Structure formats: C-alpha cells, structure tokens
C-alpha cells in the first residue's frame, strides 16, 4: 500500500491520536493515504467513528502486538 504520510501517536490517549490525524489529513490531497500508529486500544473504535463522521475512508485497521495501525484515505 502506497502511504503518503505517517504519524506516530504512540503513548497518546484519546482524543490526541484523532486530533493529530485530523490535522495531518487537512494538509493532504484528496485520495492520499495516512497511516496512524497508536497504542491506545480505544483508537480502534475512535477511528471508525472518526471516518463515519468526517467522510474520510478507513481503509484498514491492524493490531500488531501493543500497536494499532489505522490507514485512512483523505476524502
């Protein structure tokens, strides 16, 4: 998957991973992919709700050990 931007939100709890993703997406072009690496287990649910509310596409979510990886496509 060709990701244009990645942000590291490890160690941050809600709502900071969402806020950082929102800021990053605002600086990206439509259709570009953003990867967010988080350690907050609540981020799985949070990013699903964020995608529904903002119209950005949640392309993929993955759990890798204690990390949660979210890939979003900018609307």
TrEMBL record:
By sequence similarity, the record places it as follows: Belongs to the sulfur carrier protein TusA family.
Q: What is this protein called?
A: TusA-related sulfurtransferase
Provide the UPF0033 domain boundaries: 7-31
Q: Which PANTHER family match?
A: SULFUR CARRIER PROTEIN YEDF-RELATED (PTHR33279:SF6)
Q: State the superkingdom.
A: Bacteria
């Amino acid at each position: 998957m060709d990701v244009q931007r990645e942000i590291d939100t490890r160690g941050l709890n809600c709502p900071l991973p969402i806020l950082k993703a929102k800021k990053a997406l605002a600086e990206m072009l439509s259709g570009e992919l953003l990867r967010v690496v988080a350690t907050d287990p609540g981020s799985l649910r949070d990013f699903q709700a964020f995608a529904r509310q903002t119209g950005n596409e949640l392309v993929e979510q993955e759990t890798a050990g204690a990390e949660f990886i979210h890939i979003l496509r900018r609307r």
